[in-house]
């Protein structure tokens, strides 16, 4: 029997009316959050404005996370989903001057894992400050110290996978010497304002985060962030919460994705920024539910990836619990593969209106476009360039593909570090020049005044 969620997806996809659905949800969310209980007074305080990455993304006062100290403000919201027994902290990518606040929040909330869904630099734009130590492998220090909050962050281990990097960070409160370990899950192939190229890769990432127990209630809430902390972060939390309900009830009929999203938006504004992200959420939930209800679990999706990732480096006390399952341990009781990703129709293929929804799409809305996956584009270019290289077996193909992807990631990291270095140089140059600007401006005004005075004297003498 087809669930309501599947019917909605087929309806919206068939009529290509995701934009209307998304706009309707935005309007409903706006109406629901009009009351005084959804004020953003603290975020608009003059002392706190500089702590916001974007002017139009502010935490509600009723759900904002507070930190100890002279100022308790940080642009972060606690999202609660009681029916799924889940709590998340959604926050923006730290700014240079809010990194200390970020780590203080991590410590005070007893967070076990940080889920980062963006890259530091995307499309030549700094989306997030480098808030964790890069390590000696890239010519940097293994630790960062934040004296304002007395926290030292040390990189203990790092392991690259196909779509994400797992880091183990040690946090130390220098005053007391107390130490804690935090896992840093960094998804590296999710484009800004876009969606991952594959629900399978995303669901496998979600499974890996879940497998560590970092989303359970016996530890502090996981910190989830992208650049603004609403688009990609909202998608992650919506998919996870809905799949928890599917697991608990054994049915897709137990969830209402739109109501769940409206509920989550009552804790943080703007969750899920585009209708592409809404569509992807539906797709990931349906595909994840498919394997769960067939007895496989999200770990079985690894069958559809390019071979199993290597086991993580066991450098800390947390990591021994974290084992990404190998192919040999995957369940074999799924008779059919998960449904393939349905192609999105172009505007030219649009059929008559979407049932159950009124109104026309906003003119300013973006047209459908497939989200670009930079890893895949670069990978395809390298494959095309080396077509003449012989391949002996499927194993060699897989090994070569893995090596190429590894080289791509390493090159991207190198380029990102170079961009960060140049950005910091420009920032430092600007800061060095700033104290002299008032004097330089005064000199210009004085020079102009002298010139005007001399010109006036000359004109006076000329006419006399």
From TrEMBL:
One of its GO terms (molecular function) is protein kinase binding. CDD domains: PTPc-N1_2. Residues 380-409 have a biased composition (Basic and acidic residues). It is found in: Endomembrane system; Endoplasmic reticulum. SMART domains: PTPc (SM00194), PTPc_motif (SM00404). GO terms for cellular component: endoplasmic reticulum; nucleus. Residues 203-279 form the Tyrosine specific protein phosphatases domain. Keywords: Endoplasmic reticulum, Hydrolase, Membrane, Phosphoprotein, Protein phosphatase, Transmembrane, Transmembrane helix. InterPro entries: NR_tyrosine_phosphatase, Prot-tyrosine_phosphatase-like, PTP_cat, Ptpn1/Ptpn2, Tyr_Pase_AS, Tyr_Pase_cat, Tyr_Pase_dom. Its main location: membrane. Residues 334-409 are annotated as: Disordered. The chain crosses the membrane at residues 444-463. Residues 18-288 form the Tyrosine-protein phosphatase domain. This is protein-tyrosine-phosphatase. It comes from Lymnaea stagnalis.
